[in-house]
Design goal:
The complex is a heterodimer of chains A (388) and B (439).
Chain A (H helix, E strand, L loop, with lengths): L1 H18 L25 E6 L5 H17 L3 E6 L4 H13 L4 E4 L8 H9 L4 E4 L9 E5 L1 H15 L3 E6 L6 H13 L2 H7 L2 E3 L13 H18 L5 E4 L2 H13 L14 H9 L5 E3 L2 H16 L27 E4 L5 E7 L2 E3 L5 H5 L5 H4 L14
Parallel strand pairs in A: 1-2, 1-3, 3-4, 4-5, 5-11, 6-7, 6-8
Antiparallel strand pairs in A: 9-12, 10-11
Chain B lengths: L1 H6 L13 H8 L3 H20 L7 H26 L7 H22 L10 H27 L3 H20 L4 E2 L3 H4 L11 H28 L7 H22 L6 H10 L17 H19 L1 H11 L1 H6 L4 H27 L1 E2 L7 H11 L11 H20 L4 H26 L1
Antiparallel strand pairs in B: 1-2
Helix pairs in contact in B: 3-17, 4-12, 4-13, 4-15, 4-16, 4-17, 5-6, 5-7, 5-15, 6-7, 6-15, 9-10, 12-13, 13-15, 16-17, 17-18
Classes of the chains: A alpha/beta (388), B mainly alpha (439).
């Protein structure tokens, strides 16, 4: 009995030593003693600073998957929610470090305001993962979905469905680079620009489309109503609508309903349950969905690897952890990514999943939506496979 | 203020000379402010029509514009009373969002799962609407109580309300969009099915015309009875003709808006109606939200000008101390203005939710700004005591006609905001200048 205790103590001390090079003891590291002695590096504390839990996805998908992956690897998960306040996020980072975090995962509220916190972590020798939002610093590992690819997936689906005709472009907030730059880049990569140049596609609402203040659903609806009225007055038919995200697509679908216009193919992204329901109802053609579960798993695995001392350049996602359809197109190893300011960071850029009526089952499998919500009001006769 | 002018006995005052156009208009006792706003509105519509090469001024487009303005206009009628009594309400947008989300959750979640009222339960939409109105009145009563009885400035209370209530919307749905309302409820939002139809529109038009004539006759009789000067007969006749032509004209205009082709054809095949060569033309008539707005405007005007409560509000706004010294329960009056506001927010929320067929986290966001702008453009003064309800409704139409027109022309929202801001300042500046010159 005494021998066993002593052995346990030794392991505990070893783990402790391995995990407290920063000097502060964490009460949770004791839990590492129950882990096999061989994987001391895995017994580490991963601190996550969320900028907000107001959007449901973070608490529903990202957090539990990071936590599960970290804990499955023998680590400890701690986190803090900054509630959309920059100062709070800096305080949170301090707290996480003093609680013994050995790796930080940051979802930055602002990619500039977070820099003092980043410096503090780096001074303490703590590696940082920039989660979903870029932080401009060569030291971070950046993990996200490719927003250009999201735009490409939206336009791929719509252009394949409607290769020629009159398009309406509904964009998001004019101040958001996703709305004005990245997503439209993806549209152009899918061939929108060439088809406009060749005359196959005509854009009804100006060359740049219509922006939507703050991505507001109501605003997208009233804009779309004016566009429909204009098209009807001209006697032109709207053949397809590219909407950048789901909140605007929801407004577009409401406008089409209010005008009893019928439902030309419409795009969106985010996999919001209300929009997935619209896909099932045939009111939205495609919803490009960023599977946050996979992003969380990947971040958790990378955090454990960093904790074990792996250099960012040598990071590799464990094979089989992330759904191959979502895993980075460039392979499982870290890739160089050039930020808009020209900094090179190591990155993992995951692929989005386009969901159409035929592939809605994926949304149920990812627990993005319940079957009841997905199939609400869907007519049994015309229901997609996922609703049968 | 026309109403005060009507009520005040003016023996010995000579009717204005008939020599100038201004004199002629004065004899008809038309509210020049309202008349001016109608001219401005017509000017804006005409300008857009020219700019768009004649595509703009069509029944379909005007119906869209009117429906888009209806929510803000409904709330603006209440904002008039609040601003007239020297208060403000910044929480209306958040309250609209909260109640819209409540409607959506009631019909999709709470009613079927908590209250055991499935989708087939009769009049679910009406029950939801009733609960929303109670909720609005409740929120209004709380804010009104703190303002009137505790004495916290209304700006602060309703600013707090703006933040708090918007935060509560998030807790209702965890930020998710909720959709799929009852078909009955969706009719509140307008559209081809949510309109009163061709026949009803003609009936409404005729009733409107008869009502105008009846009001004119009754007014003339009452004035005779109490020895007030009456309008010359030609002025009465002109007003009756103009009023009737306007109302019947609006009905005819609305009846020139037809069901969308696809919907009409589906309806025809379902009911075995042969489709004529020119297509099946089913007139939509006035949309429901406009009928709701019309009812709200009439009731609110009645309350403001013909009920004791309304007169107290204007009296308080004109001189709070004198009103209190006159023994009027001013606190109760102020509280009631906020309750009324809450009810109007519930109606506007119904329009917004029905139009969206659901609710999102941001429904109603920045309504407070549009509503205050509509009231102020419509001639409501922050100094208190001045403002009319039809003016605020027209103000809402002026602001929305700009937003819709620019949107129709393909101007993006930053440009729309620039124009809306400039018009707001111009309208109030012009008004202030006019009042100073008049006094």
């Amino acid at each position: 009995m005494r021998k066993r205790l002593a052995a346990l103590a030794t392991v505990a001390i070893m783990t402790f030593a391995a995990c407290t090079s920063g000097g502060t003891a964490s009460p949770t590291t004791g839990g590492g003693a129950s882990q096999p002695a061989g994987s001391t590096a895995a017994a580490c504390t991963v601190g996550v600073s969320w900028n907000n839990f107001q959007q449901p996805r973070w608490a529903a998908h990202d957090k539990p998957n990071i936590q599960k992956t970290v804990e499955a690897g023998g680590g400890t998960y701690i986190d803090a929610d900054a509630n959309l306040v920059n100062e709070q996020q800096l305080t949170d980072i301090d707290t996480l470090i003093s609680k013994g975090a050995k790796v930080l995962i940051l979802l930055a509220q602002s990619n500039t305001a977070i820099l003092p916190g980043l410096k503090k972590a780096q001074d303490a020798g703590i590696p940082v993962i920039a989660y979903d939002r870029l932080i401009e610093d060569p030291g971070v590992v950046y993990i996200t979905f490719d927003n250009v690819l999201v735009g490409k997936a939206e336009a791929d689906a719509i252009i394949k469905k409607v290769p020629k005709g009159n398009y309406v472009l509904i964009k998001g907030d004019p101040g958001d680079p996703n709305a004005s730059t990245f997503l439209p880049q993806g549209w152009d990569q899918a061939g929108l620009k060439d088809k406009v140049a060749s005359g196959d596609i005509k854009i009804l609402n100006g060359p740049d489309g219509t922006f939507t203040d703050a991505w507001k659903t109501e605003k997208a609806q009233s804009n779309m109503e004016a566009i429909i009225d204009n098209a009807v007055a001209d006697g032109t038919k709207i053949d397809a609508i590219l909407a950048e995200n789901d909140s605007t697509a929801l407004g577009v679908a409401a406008a089409l309903t209010a005008k009893s216009y019928g439902y030309p193919p419409l795009s969106g992204q985010d996999g919001d349950p209300a929009n997935l329901n619209n896909v099932a109802l045939g009111r939205q053609y495609v919803d490009v969905f960023k599977n946050a579960n996979e992003l969380g798993k990947a971040a958790g695995a990378l955090a454990l690897a960093l904790c074990a001392g792996t250099k960012p350049a040598d990071l590799k996602l464990p094979s089989g952890l992330v759904d191959p359809a979502v895993a980075p197109a460039a392979g499982l190893g870290a890739q160089d990514f050039k930020t808009p300011n020209g900094t090179m960071v190591k990155s993992f850029i995951l692929q989005p999943t386009p969901l159409t009526a035929d592939t809605l089952q994926k949304a149920i499998d990812a627990q993005q939506v319940s079957k009841a919500d997905l199939c609400k009001g869907v007519d049994a006769a015309t229901a997609p496979a996922a609703c049968k | 203020m026309t109403n005060l002018a009507e009520a005040a006995p003016v023996p010995g005052v000579q009717p204005p000379a008939r020599t100038s156009i201004r004199g002629l208009i004065a004899q008809t006792e038309i509210d020049l402010r309202l008349f001016g706003m109608l001219v401005v509105l017509a000017g804006i519509l005409l300008a857009f029509n020219i700019l768009s090469g004649g595509k703009f001024f069509q029944p379909t487009n005007m119906v869209t514009l009117a429906v888009q303005a209806s929510g803000v206009a409904v709330i603006a009628t209440g904002m008039v009373l609040i601003i007239v009594s020297r208060n403000i309400d910044l929480s209306v947008g958040s309250l609209v969002g909260f109640i819209a989300m409540t409607y959506a959750l009631l019909m999709t979640d709470w009613m079927p799962h908590l209250l055991g009222m499935g989708p087939d339960f009769p009049f679910r939409w009406a029950i939801a609407l009733g609960l929303g109105i109670l909720l609005g009145a409740g929120f209004g009563a709380i804010q009104g109580f703190i303002i009137a009885y505790v004495g916290v400035p209304s700006f602060i209370v309703t600013l707090g309300g703006l933040l708090t209530i918007r935060g509560l919307v998030w807790y209702l749905s965890s930020g998710a969009a909720v959709s799929g309302l009852d078909p009955g409820f969706q009719l509140v939002g307008g559209g081809a099915l949510g309109s009163i139809g061709g026949t009803m529109t003609w009936i409404v038009g005729v009733i409107g015309c008869l009502a105008i004539v009846a009001l004119l006759i009754n007014g003339r009789r009452q004035r005779r009875r109490y020895g007030f000067p009456v309008r010359p007969m030609w002025a009465e006749a002109t007003l009756a003709v103009i009023g009737c032509v306007a109302v019947i004209g609006l009905a005819a205009f609305a009846n020139n808006n037809f069901w969308p082709k696809g919907l009409a054809e589906r309806y025809a095949t379902q009911n075995n109606i042969p489709i004529p060569a020119g297509g099946l033309l089913i007139p939509t008539g006035f949309p429901n939200p406009i009928m709701l707005l019309l009812a709200v405007t009439l009731v609110m005007t009645f309350i403001a000008t013909r009920r004791r409560f309304g007169r107290y509000v204007y009296a308080y706004g004109g001189n709070p101390d004198a009103t209190e010294l006159a023994g009027i329960n001013t606190r109760w009056t102020i509280l009631k203005t906020y309750v009324l506001m809450g009810v109007l927010c519930a109606l506007a929320a119904a329009i917004a939710a029905a139009r969206l067929n659901g609710a999102t986290l941001d429904v109603g966001q920045s309504y407070e700004l549009y509503v205050i702008a509509a009231a102020v453009v419509g001639g409501t003064s922050f100094a208190g005591g001045i403002g009319t309800i039809p003016g605020a409704v027209l103000g809402a139409f002026v602001m929305q006609s700009l937003a819709y027109g620019l949107s129709f022309m393909g101007v993006n929202s930053p440009g729309q905001n620039v124009v809306a801001g400039i018009v707001l300042i111009l309208a109030v500046g012009f008004d202030t200048f006019n009042r100073r010159r008049g006094s």
